[in-house]
Every structure is written in structure tokens, then in C-alpha cells.
Amino acid sequence: MSETAYPVTERNKVRRLHERGRHDFASIYEILDAAMLCHVSYVIDGQPYCTPTVFWREGNHLYWHGSSASRMLRTQKPGVPVCVTVTHLDSLVLARCGFNHSVDYRSAMCFGNAHIIDDPEEKSRALDSMIDRLYPGRNAELRPSTAQELKATMVIGMNIDQASGKIRSKGIGDEEEDYALPIYATRFPVVQTIGPAEDCPRMPAGVPYPEGLAGFIPGRRLDEIMTESYKKTYGDT
Amino acid sequence: MSETAYPVTERNKVRRLHERGRHDFASIYEILDAAMLCHVSYVIDGQPYCTPTVFWREGNHLYWHGSSASRMLRTQKPGVPVCVTVTHLDSLVLARCGFNHSVDYRSAMCFGNAHIIDDPEEKSRALDSMIDRLYPGRNAELRPSTAQELKATMVIGMNIDQASGKIRSKGIGDEEEDYALPIYATRFPVVQTIGPAEDCPRMPAGVPYPEGLAGFIPGRRLDEIMTESYKKTYGDT
């Protein structure tokens, strides 16, 4: 492995439209850290499964909440191969022919061997990190987890052995001879945003709005908030 | 298979928090038809892959754009097992302890055998349907596809043999004894919306805004638009 990029093999080679491909850590991490959800793929008896879940990154490791993959992981301690994919949809591209219709997007596929984080201390630390990665400083403000709660939570981790990123951001790309046609062609930007906080009605009076949520401004893009939260908690790693 | 729901086996049983589970066609289709992107999982030599792509539904069939799964499909004509997953993120739930932090969401996992749509007529019809499913009536307004373009496009289809849906919409669910704690607890709604159309600057003057895009109003939720587009094109199927 070079120091700034993942090795490229058959597994993570970008085949279609390879000019959109990325393999350097910085590009992959940027796509990952802007997201709170991923899709985890794994195999049980030859059948693929794809589960959405909350995840986060620490250095070159990913962590996520347990899923039905746990069935399999319980019996295969050395780990099982998984693919963790993150996708941001950035626009709808309406071109002049069907073939050139597209979407702008940023996606990353990460390959590695998933294993259960079983050690109670490591698991506890990982879950605290998950909360703080999403909501900076929040863990210190919460009622501490009980042993029972920790036991009921499954944390899965993996080293990113290989990854590939794909970015499309060019909007419309039509055939040169098609531009003059009287066909409506446009791009609709797509954003995922948060709305105004809906505070729990059972909260006692006088509970202040946490400083760590200062970035959670109504109407703001979730990918920007997630990137900012990540940097507040982990710095530029 | 009953007439209104998928059979439940080990493969699509909802294990964790099964009160969130759905197996009826109506619930699954509603989640699918509100989306334009899915994540497709498949296996090559024991390695799972998870690829985001545009997809659509016709009756109990799903179709999507080719991906690296095509490598495998070319050699396995009878089809290969896949899992197609769709996820909508609806809110961030900040509870009073780490354990009760959550997100509201709607997701569907669909299982079946994927096969290549090779017949030129069937492929052409499928691609036309994809355009119209997203943008009602648009196909008739486009420059027709060339034989070359059709050849360069891979369409994959599958019957949904089994599926499971999962919906969480309850917001905060804390332990009864925790509600009185002086801890900030809230829900941030999350929406994915489109912005104002960015028309292609190379469009000739006088090209009218298509009637089929009347629902593409800036600020509107993409899941609502997609559901509406679906019904306009396919009716209530």
C-alpha cells in the first residue's frame, strides 16, 4: 500500500467511466466522513445481503452497528469479507437522449474483513465515538450506558483494505450534434438537509441547547454538518 | 406466496426490533417507488460487492442499470442471487442515552435472481420506461436512442422473490426513568429535496418547460416527486 492511496486490483478497479474513479485516501475519506449512513454487503451461504446502518471512520477503520451479519460473525471470529458503500446523490441530469441521462453523485466502496468488537472497553469507547462523531461533545452530556445496554449492542469493525471512489459532477454531457435540438435539458440539484429541531415535549424546563449542536442549523445540508462534526471530533485525520 | 405479501423465511425475517418489519407488497412497493437509487449487492468468488444505481419497479419486477455485476452475469445466464436495498433517512433521533439514539427511516431489502435483459426490444422498452418513470412523458420528447447506445447499455432485471421492509418513525423513545433528566433530547427531521432547475445554457431559445416536469418544484421532497412520477406513469400498480 502506498502512503496516500489504496492498491488497485480487480476488486476495486473502476471499470465503467474510469475517469470518475478515485483511489486516494483523501478522496475516499471525504466521501465517507460526509455521510452518517452506509450500506453493508455480506454473504451468507452464497446469498448476498445489503443492510443500511449508521457507520463512522477512525483512521483507516470503519465501525458500524450490528446487523444480521452478526449471525455469521458469531461463528466466524477471524472475520468475513464485506463491502461498505456510501452514496451521496447530488443532482438529476436530464439530457437530450436517454443514454445521456444521469445523476451527479459521490460514492465510495470499501472492502475489508469485518469482525465483532467484543472487548467491553473497546466496544464502549467505540460507541462513545459514534455519538461524538455525529454530535460533537454529546457523549459527556448523556446518561451513561448500562452494562445491559452495552451487552445488547453489537459493534462491528473493519480495516479498509481497499477502496474505490467515484465522483460525477459534470451535469449535462450531450453529444455535440444534439445540443441544437429543441429538447429541454436541465440539471436539478439534490440536497439532503435537516429541518428545525423538534424538541422532546417531556424535557424539563431550562435544558440549554448544546454547544456541540451549533452546526445543526435548519435548512443546512446534512453532508456539510456530518463533515463538520467529524472534524470537530477527530480533527483532520 | 399469498396474494398480498411475501413469504417469510430465514432470508427475509426481520430479526432486530421486528415490530418495525413489513412484508406486504403495498408497504414494500411504497418504499421502492419513492426512491430513484438503490444499492445492489452481489457476490463474485465469495466477495460481496455493493453498487449504487438507478432502479425502477414494474409490477413485481425490479430493473436497474448494469454494473460490475455484469461481469458475472455474462457467464451465468440463469441469473445470480442479488439483494436490492432502498433506504430513506427521515430523521436524526437524539435521546437521553447513547443506546436510544437512533434514526427514523424507511428501508426495503428485495431478494431475487438477477438476469441480463438481452433482447433488444425488451431492453429498449425497459430503458424508455426508466426515463418515463423518473420524468413522466419525457421519453417521447427525446432524441431516440441509437443502436450503438442501446448496445452500450446493460439492463438487469429480477423478479422480487422475497422482500422485507423496515420502518421507524417514532422519534424519541427513552427509558421511562430518563425523561426527567436535564438532558437535551430532540429530533431533527431530514429531507432530500430538489433545487431550482439549472437549464443547459446551450439550449435553443423557446424550448418550453415540459408538462411532465410540473411536479419538479424547487424545495420539494424527492421521495414525493418520485412517488408522484411513478403513479403518473404506471398508475396504482
Give short descriptive properties of this protein.
Pnp Oxidase, Chain A; 6-stranded antiparallel barrel; 5 helices; 20% helix
Structural write-up:
The structure is a homodimer of 237-residue chains. With 237 residues, chain A is of the alpha+beta class. The first copy, chain A, has a single domain (18-234), classed as Electron Transport, Fmn-binding Protein, Chain A (Pnp Oxidase, Chain A), CATH 2.30.110. In chain A, 20% of the residues lie in helices and 34% in strands. The first copy, chain A, has five helices and ten strands; from the N terminus they run βαβββαββααββββα. Chain A has a six-stranded antiparallel β-barrel. In chain A, a hairpin with a 2-residue loop joins β3 (47-58) and β4 (61-65). In chain A, α3 (120-134) packs across α5 (222-234). The longest helix of chain A is centred in the middle third of the chain and has 15 residues, at 120-134. The model of chain A has no long low-confidence stretch (mean pLDDT 92). Chains A and B meet through β2, β3, β5, β6 and α3 of A and β2, β3, β5, β6 and α3 of B. β10 of chain A pairs antiparallel with β9 of chain B.
